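As a warm-up, study this chain.
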Amino acid sequence: MTSKTEKWFITGASGGLGLALTRRVLEAGNTVVAAVRNPAALAELQPQFSGQLIVEKLDVTDFASLPDIAKKHGDSDVIVNNAGGAIIGAMEEFTEQEIEHQFALNLLSPVHITRAFLPALRAKKQGRLIYITSMGGRIAFPGGAFYHAAKYGLEGFAETVAQEVAEFNIKVQIIEPGSIKTNFQANVRWTEETDAYRDGTVGQLRRWIAEHGEESNAGDPVKMANAIYTLSQQAEPELRTVLGADAFHILQGGYQKSLQSLAQQQDISVSVAIEGKTGFIPE
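Now compare it with the structure written out below.
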């Protein structure tokens, strides 16, 4: 566990899990750079943590601005990619702009932030990259084609980066939350509904979320923030951590089905191999 105070850079820090994590990190005596679109959302914290809290107005999808912000806060020890959001609707209903938005916010933003901050972390041979993904980065549901595509992509990106930066003593952690009791539902955007999907699976999902979505959320953002901070103090953390009873049970069931399916494919899988060749098996 670390004992020194740290400087954290947290995106999406103005509400929900991001705000709870910002408060938790500050309460531990650390400095936080809260990167937010709406600085006024942190007004309540500033008097209490005036010497520790630095608020930066930032649109994380403005990729051109990220190198400058990383240079300004190049002494950061922990980078938390938390900003994200979903647009829900049938895949065919998405506009090109909505598709681009989902990838920019949920995948390309963390990619560019990582690339901007990594040289400084490499130079000092220490640091931590934390990615708040989702159980939706490991399992998919109807209505979230591009959200899931982005989150799956972020999981693969983070896992790759973890292997590439380990030699520089940089730790990577992927946090996979389930539902969280925040205003996330209120911030969810929707595609324009079409007749073709109105009475089907996606249409039913729209109405279920509208009626029950907020009340069904089970994750406590404060407890999640406490858990994430505790994990951040581990010298050798797990690459992935699932947070939330719903996420645990859904992913557990999904993994079990995947393993069963994989076992059933063994014969046909090995039947296509060239005799005497082992294939791509990195050590």
